[in-house]
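Researcher: I'm preparing a figure for a lab meeting and need a structural model of a single chain. I don't have an experimental structure, so a prediction will have to do for now. The sequence is pasted below. Please return the structure as tokens so I can convert it later.
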Amino acid sequence: MKFSATILGSGTSQGIPVIACECHVCTSGKIEDNRLRCSVLLEIDGKNYVIDAGPDFRQQMLKFKVKSLEAVLFTHEHKDHMAGLDDVRAFNFIERRDMDIYCTKAVETALRREYHYAFEEEKYPGIPQLNIINIENKPFKLSNTIPVVPVEVMHYFMPVLGFRLGDFAYITDAKTVELEEIEKLKGLKVLIINALRKEPHISHFNLEEALNFINQVKPERAYLTHISHLFGTHEEIERELPPNVFAAFDGLKFDFD
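Model: Understood. Here is the structure written out token by token.
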């Protein structure tokens, strides 16, 4: 499978800079230190797919000049991963079709609550048109053709799905991962994994936990995402990392054969 993956956002729920913060990370003038909320664009056989549509979804689509979108895959139901879904209306209008939404039943429940107006029997003009496709922690196919292997991780007590496509895997908001799920990630070329900061956190990997997880998976390369301003600047983070581990940044792109 030939495809590319682009990091649309590599920041945690507040993004970087954080509102009203004057720390050296939030006031950095370097592009790598401006982090939108977590999301990834997958370009497969000329079609675009996005993992998560958080509060920065509109900005990300404009920034990266995404002109068409086939589907959105959701990892879980927290706001920083689903708050921008209303803006798929633009793609509904241009492409004249409903947007396919791949998600668990728990995410569907949250979507129906947060975007209740999109699911009412009598629909108001201009609302997002959504086609919910339920997924579980079982392999499935995007657009009935592209194999995807879900990887379940725990975000404190909330199940979150990561996704493996060929030699690439994307996982966010992980705190604990069962061994059987780790086995699904063996043989990767690129792993994207969350690492919030250096200090421990109740529901996210810190740096030490992320590096231990990477050592278990043993990908060729790993990239840290869902990064907080408390972690440091991009340059400071990179100084803490072993040779095959890097800090992701918005706009980072991977190509796969």
